[in-house]
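Quick illustration, no need to memorize.
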Amino acid sequence: MSNTNEAVNIVSEFLAASMVPDPEKAATFLADGVQITFTGRRLMPDAQAITMFNKARYAWVKKAFGHFDWMERDDHTIVYSNGTLYGEWPDGRSFSGNRYLDRFEVRDKKITRMDVWNDSAEWILDPAINRD
């Protein structure tokens, strides 16, 4: 990604490592004590937990990045990443166009907070919504 904002670069590199998945590399972008909250208020203690959650929910999943937006605060930068998820459900059905929005706080070159929202829960409840 050719964005000049350092916090955006940190977030995009973290997301790229998470999608491999390479939780060890992804962890290098996280601060000690990072606060990670996924949809449904699921708290994740670290990058490994994200990988394990995704393995349980999907056969595989990747992100098609949309936009990265950011704003500077007094002591940190807030970064938003949006786009869509694509992949395969555990039963072998493929999906794409699953909207996501991730919010990050970056302090001292490390991600200190991550909040995740996407359409997956709705699509699991009503598979007809995903009309691939």
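The first strand starts at residue 30 and ends at 38.
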